[in-house]
Design a protein that fits this description.
By secondary structure, this protein is mostly helical. It has helices at about 1-30, 30-55, 60-80, 85-115, 115-140, 155-160, 165, 185-195, 200-210, 215-225, 230-240, 245-255, 260-280, 290, 295-315, 320-350, 370-380, and strands spanning about 350-355, 360. The chain has a two-stranded antiparallel sheet.
Amino acid sequence: MNVALLFVYFLGLGSYVASLSAFGLAAFGPDARWVFLAGQVAYPLGYVLGGYLSDRTRRIRPLLVIGLLVLIPAQYTLFDSGQDLGAAIVASAVSRLCLAGNLQLIGTALLESAGSDPFARMRSAGTIGFGVVQALLLFLADFSPVSVGTWDFGNAGKAGALAYAVCLLLLAHIPIQRHSREHFEFAAALRLWISDSRWRLLALAFVFYFGFQLVENYLGAYLNQRGGRSQVYGAWLLAVALEVPFLFWTARLARKFGVHILFRIAAAMGVIRFTTVALDTLYPGTMPVLTSQVLHGMHFMGFYIGAIYWIRSSFPDHLYGSAFGTFQIAGNALGGISGNLIYGWLLSRAPVLLDIHGDAGPEPLAFFPVFASAALLQALILPLFMLVRQPRFRE
């Protein structure tokens, strides 16, 4: 049942991630960066809030029900906002807050009930759901009769919001209460972060997500300018191709080589991926941009799952949710927000062109400094993980 829950949840999440970038820039132009920024601020706060409330109340399922009930109208409103920038900003913040908080609660439930190896395997069901929705959206965008004049990125995001209603029917196996009975203090999680060399991972997470966040906010816009909706959905479909088999190997790799191997894989894949796209902006059509998106699974999941294993191996159970939330604040919030603002400023200065569907967006060459700088940042942190404490992998 937990596998089904993850599968359906990622149907909704997949429609959100694949549609947001192109929808935002088409609807609001350069002002879309404020929609992205609102979501970027709220995303790590969702992890903090979900982790804090779960650690504090020792509850999971009741909090997840509330999160899903709020998420459904929030995501629908975001993609139904038309030209109302204010409504889009508020809906973006609420959607990302709930998306992250729900994932934090589901992840905590699975880790406590199953452990690291089964967690990674069950998490792959979410990746499969993400891939299925990309295939469906690709079909609707290019091959279905509804693609002619009626199907767009807004419709995709609204349809995805309805998937969360099904999730409410699949919560029976999510525990009501947490396993841990230890007394909770949020300050204890913060004290552990700044002790020893743990804080160094927070610094590296800031740099990693500074560059990585453009995948969600600006890569889709570039692909839409490059070849239209089919390239956006096709790229995301390819992006999950290696994610499922990689997830099955994450615990084995961490057990044999240490958790740091996952961080290094993630950074290396980021260098290759962003360099490929940057060169394509200079020499259009010469680089395998779509093919390079197959690296996304190792790029994103290497760092994300690596962080989960590292924190679970470095913190006691009753502080896990708050510790992971703090990690997300340093990476996704501070790093992601900084990258979003700077990249948005760079693109706002570029000439605006219309793509093949008539949607407005920056000219392709304007994306070169965005992707080139992101590749440089990923290369910068690649050798620096040796400075971070290597915990003994916790089964």
